[in-house]
Amino acid sequence: MSKTSHAAAALFLVSTTAAHAQGASDCNLGDLKSMHELQRVLSQRAVEVIDRAARKESEARIGEYLTPSATFSLGAGDLQHSLATGVAGARALAGAMSADSYRFYGWDYIPEPAKDPCGTQKTDVEFSDSAARRSYRVEFTFRRGMIADGSGWTRTYTSGFLKKSRPAVP
C-alpha cells in the first residue's frame, strides 16, 4: 500500500470514528429520568415527523428526528408494503395514512428509571383518518433518539357513543 493510500485510509478512519462519536453523543435524551418521560418524548417525536411530512415541510424539518436510512412500511390484511427510506419514506407513510388525529398510550406501569435512552427503543402511535374510518398502528424504532424504522398496519374501525345515564348538571 502506498503512503497516499495509508494517509487516505487513516483520514477515513478518523472521519468515521469522529462521526460515530458525534452520533452517539448527540442523542440529547440523557436528561430524561423515567420510562414515562422517555416514551412520551419518543412518541411525540414520531408524531412530529409524520405531521411535518403530511404538511410537506422541508427535508431538514422532517429529518430532524429521522435517520437518513430509516425504513417505512404499511400493511393491510396480511400484506406489508415497503414504502421508502428517510424523508421520502416519512412522506410516503404520511400520505398513505391521511391521518387527522393520533394517540399514544402513557407509561402506566410501575415507575422505572429511563433505561438506555440513547439505545434502541420502540414506541407505538396510532394515527386515524376519521373520514375513512381507518386506524394505523405504527411501531417506531428509535436509535440514538432518531427514528430508524416505522412499520404500521391499517385497520378499519367503528366508533360511537354509549347510551349511559348521565347525572344532571346543576
Overview of the molecule:
The protein has 170 residues and is of the alpha+beta class. The chain has one domain (28-109, 120-156): Nuclear Transport Factor 2, Chain: A (Roll), CATH 3.10.450.50. The protein is 35% helix and 30% strand. The chain has four helices and six strands; from the N terminus they run αααββαββββ. A six-stranded mixed β-sheet has the order 2-1-6-5-4-3, with helices on one face. β1 (66-76) and β2 (79-85) form a beta hairpin. α2 crosses α4 (86-97). 26% of the residues are buried. Residues 4-25 have low confidence and may be disordered.
What is this entry, summarized?
This protein is an alpha+beta fold and 170 residues long.
Quaternary class: single chain
Which runs of at least 5 residues are low in confidence (pLDDT < 50)?
Answer: 4-25
Q: Order of strands across the widest beta sheet?
A: 2-1-6-5-4-3
CATH architecture: Roll
The span between the termini is: 89 Å
* Backbone structural class: alpha+beta
- The helix count comes to 4
- Mean pLDDT equals 85
What is the approximate shape? Answer: globular
Roughly how much helix do the residues carry, as a percent range?
A: 25-40%
- What is the percentage of strand-forming residues? 25-35%
Extended strand count: 6
The main β sheet shows up as:
6 strands, mixed
Number of domains: 1
Q: Write down the secondary-structure element order.
A: HHHEEHEEEE
Determine and state the CATH class: Alpha Beta
Q: Report Rg.
A: 21 Å
- CATH fold topology: Nuclear Transport Factor 2, Chain: A
